Amino acid sequence: MFFLVLKRILLGLITLFIVSLITFSGVEVLPGDACTTYLEREAYGAALEACYERLGLNTPAYERYISWAAGVLQGDFGYSLSGEMRINDVLGPRVKNSMVLASASILIGIPIALLLGIITALWRDKLPDIIISTVTIFSMTIPEFISATLLILIVAIWLEWLPGIVIVPTGVSISELLPNIILPVIAISMIMTAHMARMVRSSVIQVMASDYVQMAILKGVPYWKMVFKHVLPNALLPAINVVALTIAWLLGGVVVTEVVFNYPGLGRLVIESISNRDLPVVQALAIILASIYVSINLIADLMTLMLNPRLKSLQIKK
Amino acid sequence: MDNSVQTINNLTIGFTSQKGEQISILKNISTTIKKGETVGIVGESGSGKSTLALAMMGYVKHGLYTISGECLFHSNNLLEMKNKDLENIRGRKIAMIPQNAGQSLTPNLKIGYQIDEALKLHTDLKKEERDKKISELLNKVRLPSPEIMAQRYPHELSGGQQQRVAVAMALAGNPELLLLDEPTTGLDVTTQAHVLELLNFIAKDTGTSMVYVSHDLGAIAQVSDRIIVMYSGEIVLDGPVRSILKNPIHPYTFGLLKSIPKLTSPGLPASMSGSQPQPGTIKMGCSFYKRCNLSEDKCKNNSPNLEYIDDLNTSVRCFKYKELINVKETNSDTVKSINNDIFQNEILDISKVSISYAKQKFIDQLLNKVDDSNPTVQDINININKGETLALVGESGSGKSTILKSIAGLLKTKDGMIKFDKDNVLSNDLKTRDPGFLRAIQLIFQNPDESLNPNHTVEEIVSQPLRLYFGLKGDELKQKIIEVLEKVRLGEFYLTRYPRQLSGGEKQRVAVARAFAAKPDIILCDEVTSALDVSVQAAVLNLLQELKEDFGTTYIFVSHDLAVVRAISDRVAVLYQGRLCEIGPSKNVYELPSHPYTEVLLGAALEPDPDIKPKLVAEDIVEEKPPEQGCSFQGRCPRILGDICKTDVPPWQIGENGNSIRCHIKVDDLKKQQSIN
Q: Which chain A residues are Cβ-neighbours of B88 within 8 angstroms?
């Protein structure tokens, strides 16, 4: 078990290393560099030389990679290009904002998704299933920029209940941020919940049709006891990985929703820094997003391992 | 006093087809299960036997519904009962032992918990009493160290152990009626014999009524007092075990019994033509009309009723049963014998072959080296002659399929070599093997559903070897495909069909046709009849035999079914844990088994005759790995000699029957010991 965890962590680190190599070399081979972007028309002669000197761009690529990687390992991503700000200072509040949005969506969306999935499976082909399934399929198929825009139109403009777009500064405190996230959370949850509920539904239906559930019924186990003891633990195991991927997707910034609502999270930062050609920030974001995916997947795998007795004993035997 | 436990009256269960037609799966079933009686329900797949067993618990599968009739348990109709009341009967009054215990135990719950659940629901015992009862139950089904067992998860047990747990669970509520749905199908022969013996013991010990559903007449014969034969959703024969099996007066049962290969008689069983009709296709007349030898015009338009014959105490659904009343054993005239002379003309030489499944370490992988001191299959030496049928037999884990895969080139051997046609060494690796040799060795798999591509038509399936090996095209190709299909008795109109439009037997014929299309010298048959019904199995065995006579093909035939092996093989190699135990002409092996393992294996095999009981000479322990040293069978051998069996690999010697056997015990001593039993 211990070795398995170690092996997985090691594999995760290797993945991150490869990601860092790819992003770094990707930025390298693109025509132009940080200084030409920054200086624009003045990118020649002494000014360019001075910029190269300042950013250390006149050293060989591998040296720059090493010093950059060493910085990242110590949690220092260097300087952003546009504002000459420390990237850490740029990222910090954005990460926090994204976390707030993600946690709110997770806390609301996932329980609802599980509940809807279970209800539709247990009342399969009956009225609750037909209604909920229609609604989920509907909300799954509407792209989020449309549902988000519609939400703004109805709730913010017609009803005037909530602010339509987020107009707080990036570094605002959580309590000030909260009322602003209601609409984005609804927009995100609609699509996320629908996907997850469909997944849970099919998984529960599959387990309900299994021999061991039929056996439990024939053993005289009361319905709800059967559902909670025999069905759900087995049906929800495969859901763990989907939940994990969704969480990673949320934490990584929900680009479209953030842009529509003008929300100052990681997703919008990705768009902004790409359009500003702020390459150091893009590099930093790539590494951060990759680490989020790697670590969440690692946690999901370990959880599956802990909860599935079959896998657990298999590992112990070895 | 009424001593019936369950009475079924005119039960019809069915479904509504997509066209809106009502189609019956069970038609007008009426029968009574008496107290303390064991009733065997026998039928081929699709006969409705499992639906009937589930209905006896008031359970109807999703999509099916009761059309008419009732299922009375002590005069309460289970099919109209509320779920709440059913929960009090299921598991407590009527318990079920399922077909596949491995899939019927909930994977995330410990064995102990699952038995405890039944106890909690159906008894008033307190926690400590229940714990004691769990141990008692596990003891009763003869599982070793019950306390440890209770802490295990289902996947940590072997198939036989899982089945025993299912039995223990069913006994927890002290039921009046036990329903067993194919409880031993999928178990090894020795395990099956032990489980059946346990069930017999429980029936006697507790006085529980049992309903035993199976397609296996051998197993049914061992446990039942009465047999119900089902065909196409109807009861066609119902009577005492001996009269049904010794003098079956329904033509279907008569044919069914003749199509079962017997351990005691060599040669191929007689096959029945056709297959069971799909539900809803028979609109009028007897459902067996098309396959029946005795049928006349009357049978085409009128359905016979189930008629009770007083002096035989049997009910039969046939107009012409009287013609069968005095027909006794007629095996001799229908059985074809297969005694062609085999010339000493070697076609395949397997020498010193070992195969390992051990996971290679990274370094070994680089060096292309296999490091395993205790490989799954070791030291296999077999010569196979042209035109011979060699059978590999053994229980699951004996390595028989593994050896086949290595011959086919699908698995690399660790040591040793396989030589084809005297001096062509077959490459270890499929990629480097000469295409000519690939053509010469063809495989037929167990399950045609999985070995035939569902998106290819029969034409495409059969055309592949013809195009690949002979480069045929156009009309020539089509001509050849039709020719090959005719060889396996499939007409031209099958060309455009997809596998899903074929019956099980037809699918396997297509697989046989594909193998023969390559004009192979050797065909490897991996459990080719195991997924088929008995009557279809007989037809496929006959077909294989005829093709062999026509083409002079050599078969290497792997099967766990000893009677099938007896029917088709010229020579038998008995394997245990990937090591050879005995090899020789099948006549010798079956008439005078000399290796202790052969003796154990054959002793446990069942015959469809209640008067031939299996001999259980060894425990059915399951060994996961072959022992590190000594004889492979040391762990279970009933005649173990002593330490030498544990330290030294036994030598080859010529046994009492003229076969080569691998045993430390001297042949004379072995003979003496075996004659005592």
A: 220
